[in-house]
Specification:
The chain has 343 residues and is an all-beta fold. It has a single domain, classed as Lipocalin (Beta Barrel). It is built from one helix and 14 strands; from the N terminus they run H-E-E-E-E-E-E-E-E-E-E-E-E-E-E. Strands 1, 2, 3, 4, 5, 6, 7, 8, 9, 10, 11, 12, 13 and 14 form a 14-stranded antiparallel β-sheet that branches. Strand 5 and strand 6 form a beta hairpin. The two termini are 23 Å apart.
Length: 343
């Protein structure tokens, strides 16, 4: 959903008086008699096309978790391994555009690129079902990596009542990439089980430099709600508020490189495949300095998960094994501030 609120509302759709030569500083074409400024007026005074461009800096905190089932010493374990990345701190640049045609057709797109600068990882293994008999756990740094987010949407905008309130049911498509890492390994639980001896408690002897690259993609439906509000007496500018909601269907896949596992293939040690879904919410406020420039502040939250899927392992001897990927869960909270330009 997307909601916009402003003090004075959008400019009237009535046609303004034709500018004179003195107003425009341009002379008529002596051959046609047409004023040469008419072709550019669509970006200034013609209400049939409205363009909004936004450049923002975002601070985001993510978490991602997945776990798999498997066999251990001939026994089926419902959660054999559980991996979590928590408090993943991201600085992201987001560029976005919204274009409205004839005050009805609404298009929007956004691209965000961010760097991970902090976070924690935990890798746990269990010898019993129900996450019992944990025999290995490492707690590691996750302070490197990247994220990319791309989304496109198209919808039809209308006013259910007041001219200040507008709704736009939307259809769209998005892709999201997360490149997560594990480094500075530290073993915190170490209990030998038949056939497996985890590292001793303490820092890893070898350098941990593993990676997990996740990719979510698929269509979405949603609604944008726009609402203009009267100018508050204590502010010098108009105000707009915007709320968006999206429901996503997702194809999920991921590749991993577990650098300390000599029995795994490198650089692709295993892969994940599953189907999932997600919900995305955002709320923004705009302060208009004038007809062309404004300050944008906002916040967003998204929550994604998958059903069961496939964990496919590639061994260094060429063998391939599959087991059950139980689930993947991803959540993200972000705040941003940016500048908006309108035409």
């Amino acid at each position: 959903m997307l909601i916009i609120f402003s003090a004075s509302g959008f400019s009237s759709a009535s046609t303004p008086p034709a500018p004179t030569d003195a107003d425009t500083g341009r002379v008529e074409n002596p051959d046609t008699g047409n004023n040469s400024s008419d072709t550019s007026s669509i970006f200034v005074s013609n209400p049939d096309v409205k363009l909004y461009f936004n450049a923002a800096i975002s601070h985001r905190i993510d978490s991602l978790e997945w776990n798999i089932a498997g066999q251990l010493n001939g026994e089926y374990i419902d959660v054999l391994s559980d991996l979590t990345w928590e408090d993943i701190r991201i600085c992201q640049v987001v560029l976005s555009n919204r274009t409205i045609f004839h005050d009805r057709l609404s298009f929007r797109g956004s691209l965000g690129i961010g760097n991970i600068y902090g976070g924690d990882n935990q890798d746990s293994d269990f010898a019993g079902s129900g996450r019992s008999n944990e025999f290995s756990r490492s707690n590691n740094n996750a302070d490197d990596g990247k994220v990319v987010d791309l989304s496109l949407g198209l919808g039809y905008r209308f006013s259910p009542g007041s001219g200040r309130l507008k709704l736009a049911p939307m259809l769209g498509y998005s892709q999201h990439w997360q490149s997560l890492t594990m480094s500075d390994g530290y073993q915190t639980v170490s209990e030998a089980v038949p056939g497996i001896r985890p590292p001793d408690i303490g820092p890893f002897e070898d350098m941990l430099d593993s990676a997990y690259k996740a990719h979510w993609k698929g269509p979405w439906v949603g609604v944008d709600i726009f609402f203009d509000v009267p100018k508050p007496a204590f502010l010098f500018s108009d105000m707009e508020f915007m709320f968006t909601f999206e429901y996503h269907w997702a194809d999920y896949n991921a590749d991993a490189d577990w650098n300390l596992r000599e029995d795994f293939m490198h650089p692709k040690s295993f892969e994940h495949e599953a189907n999932g879904a997600g919900m995305v919410f955002s709320l923004d406020a705009n302060l208009r300095f004038n007809d062309f420039w404004g300050l944008n502040i906002g916040a967003g939250y998204q929550k994604w998960s998958t059903g069961s899927g496939t964990d496919r392992v590639f061994f260094s001897n060429g063998d391939i094994a599959e087991t059950r990927l139980n689930e993947v869960k991803w959540s993200s909270t972000a705040v941003h501030i940016g500048v908006e330009c309108r035409f």
